[in-house]
Each structure stands twice: as C-alpha cells, then as structure tokens.
C-alpha cells in the first residue's frame, strides 16, 4: 500500500529536526560583544569565557562589534598581537566564524592596541573522534584504529545527515 506524499511530511520533519541540530553558535563576549576589556583585571576575560565552553567541529562563533575587526592568526602572531597576513580577517561588525577542524584557534582584534589590552582569545575545538564513546568505556571492547590521522568508521558511529537523507528518499520511493 502506497503512502500519499503528504502523509510523509511528518517523516521529513523528524529527519530535519534529527539531522539539523548538530552544531552550536556561540556569541563571543555575550551581551557586550567583541570589545576591548574595560580594565586590566579583565584582560583574560575572553580566554576565561572560552575555557567555560566546549567547542566542536561545525560550531560557530558570532563576533559582534563596532569599528573593530577580528582575525584568526597563528600562535606566534597571537603572542605578538599583530599579523601582517592573518588566516582569517573580517571587519563587517557581525562576523561568523565556523570551526572546520579540531585543534587550537587564535583570535585577535585587528585594531592597533586592542589585542595588547586583552581583546584576544584562544579556542580549543575538541576532536570528537578522539573522545572515548560509551562503547569503548570497557577496556576489553575494541578501540578505533587510526590511519593517516583519520579514524576508521565502525558500525556504531553516528550516521551522517546526508546518509539519512539518501536512506529516507529510498524508503519513501518504496511507499510511493
């Protein structure tokens, strides 16, 4: 018996809700946004904020600011508070930066003097592949192997959104 296409809308809605909520947007600096810290005591405020959050690949940072900029830089440029060639630069006042890999990310203001006064931040993006999952909690359970820095997929890994979409399309065609 074929299910009418309209009857499959709830299935699509469930798939969208299941697949679409996999990343988080973090607003840097909260209500104040990306600004120069007001006092010397606040010079570590962005790193303190970053240490209280957990970032993963595909999460985004929202930098809100006026008459400023944000740059992703190397560790050395972060320490020097200047970069002639940043890895990323934006000065549109409403910058979104998406994490595309695990590891450390260094951000500074591009306005002279702002970084020296504390407008800089280090973010650690977690390597989800390296984080033990419940299936590996037992010492006797098989552990994932790594080749060339990429973890092999096991049957217990999370199914990607594109795989779910292909599977749902196939199943829908069975009913039509």
From TrEMBL:
Alphabetized Pfam families for the sequence: Cu_bind_like
Subcellular location: Cell membrane
InterPro entries named in the record: Cupredoxin, ENL_dom, Phytocyanin-like, Phytocyanin_dom
Cleaved signal peptide residues: 1-23
Family: Belongs to the early nodulin-like (ENODL) family.
PANTHER family per record: BLUE COPPER PROTEIN, EARLY NODULIN-LIKE PROTEIN 5-RELATED
The protein's name in its UniProt record: Phytocyanin domain-containing protein
